[in-house]
Amino acid sequence: MAIQGDDDRLAITAAAGSTPFSAYVQVVARFSDGTLSQGSGVMVGANDVLTVAHAIYSQDHGGWASQIQVTPGRYGDQKPLGVFDGSQISTPLEWQNSAAIGHDYGMISLDTDIGYVTGWVEYGHADTPADLVGYTLSTVGYPEDKGGNSQYFSQGTVDSTTTDTFRFEDDLDTMGGQSGSPVVYNSGGSDIVLGLVGHELSDHSQNIVVALSADSVEQIQTWAADNSTERTLNGLNPSFTGVNNATDLQIARMVELLFDQQLGYVVLETYRKIATEQGVEVAASTMLQGYSEFDEDSFVINQVISNTRLSGEAEVEAVSYLNSQLTAATTEAARGKAVLDAGSILAGLTDNAVFGSYAVAFNTEVTNSLAYSVVPMHSDARTVDAAVSGSVLQDTGWMLL
Q1: Residues 142 and 203 in one domain
Q2: Are residues 252 and 327 in the same domain?
Q3: Model pTM?
Q4: Would you tell me the crossing angle of helices 297-308 and 312-328 to the nearest 10 degrees?
Q5: Same domain membership, residue 266 and residue 221
Q6: Of 82, 179, 345, 397, which residue has the fewest beta carbons closer than 10 angstroms?
Q7: pLDDT digit string (tens) for the chain, length 401 residues
Q8: Could you tell me if 130 and 119 are in contact, meaning their C-beta atoms sit under 8 angstroms apart?
Q9: Contact call for residues 41 and 84 (beta carbons, < 8 A)
Q10: Is the domain of 176 the same as that of 98?
Q11: 38 and 163 share a domain?
């Protein structure tokens, strides 16, 4: 990686912590021999980071990296979305066996679905690399000669190709630390990752980008599918969230049912503490007691129906169920449990003929709420667009906490 002619790189500043630049990540890896290396990568899924294989597997340094940390949208000392540990890393066997340049790509799986906060970038491939000769591609990464902790943008025109690389002779300026930076093509306003910054020729005359192929795209998709089993619904890394994620899930469901909001870190921490010390049912009843409106069963029911967008047969069944459960609840703890149970039941009805689409939308909103709320800097509750297309959010005029 080298500067080709004039240094045309541009610093990404205040926007680094916001989409789309929040999806571009700094990758720091420690290897078993003690070597510490820094590279770049890009979010390509809820918990999927695409980077080069040599950033996470090096025969020279003992094979697999023993520890990996990923920082999205870093800008100098600012880490607006936090730092996340890699829980699983993958590279092709061809890279492990022979360091073949066409197989210099890999994936870091995160235990935290931070991609719902950062956003992610689509990826694909050209039929052959030669199809891209003359096209302008761009990249964002963390070059070490600029400190390694801030994003820089560069672009260039593909001058030549091989079967598995794009080559740039006079632009696409990159330096060490940018290994793994995504090289993207803007297609109709949408960025598509077509390659990864990888190497340079020994005489520094060309910057070399590893071109994604049909085979590598298929492999990346397989890795992403393998590391996402139940992750979307079942929450986040317990070592990161600080408590059993089942508790977080119940709290987020309760807030979604009653307030139709992403709860934010402060609210999550408040009710986590109550749940840890007294139980999640007490946390739920405390939430209900915080607002006089919830003293009326009819108001609770109306909130749940409105915030889950239930209608028709689903609404009729839900109203009947909630009426019976709340009427039978003789204590505040029992009322809290009734709402908690309603959330758990709805979440499990994804295959139900009546409630299926509502359950899927509810689970999506709860997952997005958790992904937002576990980030300490996301202190405030917020209202976002609903997961159900065409639905209208209720404006209650009051906010959670």
Answers
A1: yes
A2: yes
A3: 0.61
A4: 150
A5: no
A6: 397
A7: 557 677 777 888 766 666 678 899 999 999 989 899 999 999 998 889 999 999 999 989 999 999 999 999 898 888 878 888 888 899 999 999 888 889 999 999 987 788 877 888 889 998 888 888 999 999 999 998 888 889 998 888 899 999 999 998 888 877 888 999 999 998 777 789 999 998 766 556 788 899 999 999 999 999 988 775 333 322 333 333 333 357 888 899 999 999 999 888 899 989 989 998 999 999 999 999 988 899 999 999 999 999 999 999 999 999 999 999 999 998 988 999 999 999 999 988 988 999 999 998 888 788 778 877 876 667 888 886 543 333 232 333 333 43
A8: no
A9: no
A10: yes
A11: yes
Contacts of residue 287, defined as CB under 8 A and 6 or more positions apart, other chains included, come to: 254, 255, 258, 271, 336
Domain membership of residue 384 (yes or no) is no
Runs of H (alpha helix) within 13-69: none
The answer to the question of residue 84 being in a domain is: yes
C-alpha span between 28 and 236 (Å, rounded): 21
Q: How far apart are CA 263 and CA 372, in angstroms?
A: 8
Verify that 75 and 169 share a domain, yes or no: yes
Closest C-alpha to 359, from 310, 298, 317: 310
Domain housing 333: 235-373
Tokens 């094979």 appear where?
A: 63
> Angle between the 356-373 and 264-278 helix axes, to the nearest 10 degrees?
100
CB 105 within 8 A of CB 99: no
| 365 backbone dihedrals φ, ψ, rounded to 5° | -70, -35
Whether 158 and 178 map to the same domain: the answer is yes
Per the CB < 8 A criterion, the answer to whether 207 and 1 are in contact is: yes
Residue ending a domain, choose from 209, 229, 249: 229
d(CA 157, CA 171): 7
Please indicate, yes or no, whether residues 58 and 193 belong to a single structural domain of this protein.
Answer: yes
Tokens 């295959």 -> residue? 351
